Structure of SDR family oxidoreductase:
Amino acid sequence: MPENLTAVVTGGAMGIGGATAECLLEQGWTVHTLDRAGKGVPGAVHHVVDVTDADRQVEVATEIGKINALVTAAGVNLRPADGPAQRLDLDAWHRTLDINLTGTMLSVRAFYPHIADAGAIVTLGSVAGIGAMTWADGYTASKGAVVALTRSWAVDYARYGIRVNCVCPGSTETGMMDGVREAFSEESRVELPQQRLATRREVASVIAVLCGTETTYLSGAVIPVDGGATANVAGMPFPRRRVRE
Ligand SMILES: NC(=O)c1ccc[n+]([C@@H]2O[C@H](COP(=O)([O-])OP(=O)(O)OC[C@H]3O[C@@H](n4cnc5c(N)ncnc54)[C@H](O)[C@@H]3O)[C@@H](O)[C@H]2O)c1
């Protein structure tokens, strides 16, 4: 592992971003977390930033200076406010797109000039960006756009040696699941190939690999971290989890 690698992780105060910061710190990276919440993970340098604030992101990017990886994990899921399109709460729609899509773009815009050669950007999509998710128009639209933008950025920034990949988690045990856990009762978990949600760490460890210096020819990839959920053909039964004979 080369020395003196620095990463910026937005949404790094908790959840998948927090676990990514922990993973990178364990591997010897210097980590800066950006979050609208006031506390980062121990060992990281924390900056209170709302990712919708373009000027503040540029200010912090200039303060931090050269980095090797940017992870855009800040995001919201206002799904409980969604419903059929005619009932969709327009404020929730705009807020979701502002944070998940425009916020991601503003992070790339602010930090890209400071990313060293052979650096990496890892965006956070979702299985909702590559498949259907019920009554979540704003969230689905924002994540589909992040997937599309990741591919464009991978091509645009390749000439500068910067790799851009998108990690698309399935349902993961974080604060984002608060309020919707009842939908993941034992009964519906069996609809997932592994019959459980992902841990934060299982998603973070994939992000950390993409930040690293080994995956130098991997760019424009959209990687589901969903235990096989999107690989499954709807309606096709799959073997239930069981003790191996
Ligand atoms: N948890 C899941 O099931 C799941 C599944 C697929 C994709 N994702 C995506 O992964 C990313 C991380 O989600 P998570 O599950 O860790 O959620 P989380 O709620 O645990 O963490 C999200 C973090 O983003 C921060 N944040 C939100 N809005 C912000 C803003 N405007 N400015 C700065 N920080 C802001 C929050 O303070 C929080 O620390 C999100 O983009 C989310 O859409 C999560």
Q: What stands out?
A: The longest strand covers residues 115-124.
